[in-house]
Amino acid sequence: MSISHEVKIAGVIGDVHAEDELLSKAIRFLRDRRIQTILCVGDIADGRGRVDHCCTILVNEGITVVIGNHDQWLLKNSMRDLEYATQLDEISEESRLFLSSLPATYEFKTAGGLSLLCHGLGENDMARLTPDDYGYAIEANVDLQDLIKESKYRYVINGHTHLKMVRSFARLTVINAGTLKRDNGPGFLAIDFAQEIARFFRFNAKGTIEEAESVSLT
After folding, report:
1. 120 lies in which domain range?
2. What confidence tens digit (pLDDT) does each residue in 189-202 have?
3. Tell me, what DSSP letter sits at residue 179?
4. Residue 1 lies in a domain
5. According to the model, what pLDDT value does residue 117 have?
């Protein structure tokens, strides 16, 4: 789905990992709050749920999605000995074509500036940035440093680590929605680019959604 307008508010769904039920609930929650633009950082594959159903939901709801490393592995039929790995013959041709069509990155305009949606950092879907990275871990993170030096983006919205996060470096703010994976504290977020606030939501033990925290983007 192409985003042709300047985005003021967006929902963001982190690594999906086949959690079709939670994916549906998260999207419904965001739609009920009249959030039209919803983004997803990929890793649709490899989990306990139904990848085909996840792909169908993402297509039908017009979600803007980038490809994750687990999706790449699935399409290449590699790393299939992982726990809960999706097997290539378990998904439909439609799902395979959908995953194959996903870009590595997607850029769009927001009320706060140009933003980049990706899985890792930029084109590298295996690049990591965690809330605990400081000092040398930041200095040696080539992919992060390239984004900082480029000074093209105000926001980078990513995933991969399953760790929700808002971190700022000069004019660049990196935002991670976390994951829908049940074992990793499932949740998602909504970003108000105009007010510069990220609101994180989580699924509690009963499976209902509650707000976890609000974080300033500045």
Report:
1. 9-216
2. 999 999 999 999 99
3. B
4. no
5. 98
Tell me phi and psi for residue 45, to 5 degrees. Answer: -85, 165
Question: Taking the model in full, what pTM does it have?
Answer: 0.97
4 inside domain: no
Buried b (16+ CB within 10 A) or exposed e, 175-188: bbbbbbbbebebbb
What is the average per-residue pLDDT within 152-179? 97
CATH number at residue 14: 3.60.21.10
Determine which helix (DSSP H) or strand (DSSP E) holds 10, and give its type and residue range.
strand 9-13
Q: Give tens-digit pLDDT for 67-92.
A: 999 999 999 999 999 999 999 999 99
| pLDDT of 125 strictly over 80 | yes
Mean pLDDT, residues 99-113 taken together: 97
Query: 2 pLDDT band (50/70/90 cuts)?
Result: low
Look at residues 90, 123, 87 and name the one whose alpha carbon lies nearest to residue 104. Answer: 123
Asked whether residue 3 is domain-assigned, the answer is: no
Distance CA 154, CA 127 (A): 19
- Say if strands 9-13 and 37-40 run parallel, antiparallel, or are unpaired: parallel
What does the alpha-carbon distance between residue 10 and residue 86 come to, in Å, rounded to a whole number?
A: 29
Q: Looking at the 3D structure of the chain, how many domains does it have?
A: 1
Neighbouring residues of 77: CB distance < 8 A, sequence distance ≥ 6 = 88
126 inside domain: yes
User: Which amino acid, residue 194?
Assistant: A
> Alpha-carbon distance 184 to 167, whole Å?
20
